[in-house]
């Protein structure tokens, strides 16, 4: 009985645990580093009394890790917590541009906000249940993937497999401005445009050349003009390259394009339009490759209902929970698109993800961990 009087979470203890995760740097493209992070999370999960399953990495990426509550049958529909082990920060960031430090209510470090803080809070909530001898109406499973920051290509099948035995998905991605959680995300599509013209000496034989750069310039304007803020469609040509020397008519050029779509209908139409572009110069060829990476995550009625439930729980805990839509994708896009009620942005509050100013608000730890715990306890 004394256990129930113990406060589930203590700020200093949570912060120290998050520090112990942050100091293990885990850039997506360094599989050995991500696996060291997986080792640490697996050790903490086993110490917490949960079951773990490790999935060896593929295509040069790190391992994925599944943590399972001791209660609940294998095939019983449950709650899936979605987390990632990797960060965007290269090795050495911790010793240079973004040292771990705490200044007042703010803690800095690579991946502290996106998303080691939130991932650790999810495990801490599950651990609290195990230690207090309680079970929840639904089994709880937390999946830590290795490659979210590079598109989750090697984890998507596993995410979808776990989502199929989930009634609800809770994503521990960082909270937005002021602690808002996320109930809609745009879908993400990526394309590479390759343009082939004809090289020629720019002085002696200019008229014989077919400039791939000239073609690229015209196409870039058309492609970017597809952006429509009214529907939420954005098309960004983020990288261009082409040509070889100033005195050669450019034989090749290329562009990398990022498209964000608010829903499947707008997305399908925009992608069809992009794939159908034709060259202005008939002697130039265009090849467009790519497609949808993460489907749109729209706020369904089920998601709206789940959000209302979370908002009620937050009010009981003592804070006001709001939600918002964002243009950034996450693994929540996969599960929401499958029709599984998904709440995202349940991780820590803070700001400046993916920069050398990345930071987490320390006083958000206990309320956010408590909300995750209450969701686990009350979802049926
Ligand atoms: Zn993230």
Walk me through this protein's architecture.
The chain is of the alpha+beta class. It folds into 2 domains: 267 residues, Zn peptidases (Aminopeptidase); 108 residues, Alpha-Beta Plaits (2-Layer Sandwich), CATH 3.30.70. The strands form 5 sheets. It has a 6-stranded mixed sheet, sandwiched between helices. Strand 1 and strand 2 form a beta hairpin. Helix 2 packs across helix 4, helix 4 crosses helix 10 and helix 8 crosses helix 10. The protein is elongated and about 85 Å long. The chain starts with a helix and ends with a helix. The N terminus is likely disordered. Bound molecules: zinc ion. Zinc ion binds next to helix 4.
In short:
β17 and β18 (359-361) form a beta hairpin. Helices cover 33% and strands 25% of the residues. By secondary structure, the chain is α+β, with helices and mostly antiparallel strands.
Question: What structural keywords apply?
Answer:
Alpha-Beta Plaits; four-stranded antiparallel sheet; six-stranded mixed sheet; 380 residues; 2 domains; disordered N terminus; alpha+beta; 18 strands; binds zinc ion; Aminopeptidase
């Amino acid at each position: 009985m004394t256990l129930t009087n113990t406060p589930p979470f203590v700020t200093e203890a949570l912060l120290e645990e998050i520090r112990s995760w942050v100091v293990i740097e885990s850039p997506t493209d360094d599989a050995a580093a991500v696996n060291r992070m997986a080792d640490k999370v697996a050790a903490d999960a086993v110490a917490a009394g949960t079951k773990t399953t490790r999935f060896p990495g593929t295509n040069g990426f790190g391992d994925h890790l599944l943590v399972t509550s001791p209660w609940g049958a294998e095939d019983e529909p449950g709650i899936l917590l979605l987390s990632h082990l990797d960060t965007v920060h290269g090795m050495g960031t911790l010793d240079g541009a973004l040292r771990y430090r705490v200044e007042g209510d703010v803690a800095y470090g690579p991946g502290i906000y996106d998303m080691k803080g939130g991932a650790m809070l999810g495990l801490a909530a599950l651990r609290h249940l195990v230690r207090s001898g309680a079970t929840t109406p639904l089994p709880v499973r937390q999946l830590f993937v290795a490659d979210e920051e590079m598109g989750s290509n090697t984890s998507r099948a596993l995410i979808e497999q776990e989502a199929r035995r989930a009634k609800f998905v809770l994503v521990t991605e960082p909270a937005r401005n002021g602690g808002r959680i996320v109930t809609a995300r745009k879908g993400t599509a990526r394309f590479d445009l390759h343009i082939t013209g004809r090289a020629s000496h720019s002085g002696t034989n200019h008229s014989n050349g077919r400039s791939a750069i000239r073609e690229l310039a015209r196409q870039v304007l058309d492609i970017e003009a597809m952006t429509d803020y009214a529907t939420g469609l954005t098309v960004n040509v983020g990288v261009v390259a082409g040509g070889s020397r100033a005195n050669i008519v450019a034989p090749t050029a290329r562009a990398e394009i990022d498209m964000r779509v608010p829903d499947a209908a707008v997305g399908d139409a925009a992608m069809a339009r992009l794939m159908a572009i034709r060259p202005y110069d008939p002697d130039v060829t265009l090849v467009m490759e790519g497609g949808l990476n993460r489907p749109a995550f729209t706020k369904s009625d089920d998601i709206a209902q789940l959000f209302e439930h979370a908002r009620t729980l937050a009010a009981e805990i003592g804070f006001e929970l709001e939600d918002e839509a964002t243009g950034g994708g996450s693994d929540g896009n996969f599960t929401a698109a499958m029709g599984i009620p998904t709440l995202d942005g349940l991780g820590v509050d803070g700001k400046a993800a993916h920069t050398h100013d990345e930071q987490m608000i320390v006083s958000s730890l206990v309320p956010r961990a408590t909300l995750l715990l209450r969701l686990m306890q009350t979802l049926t």
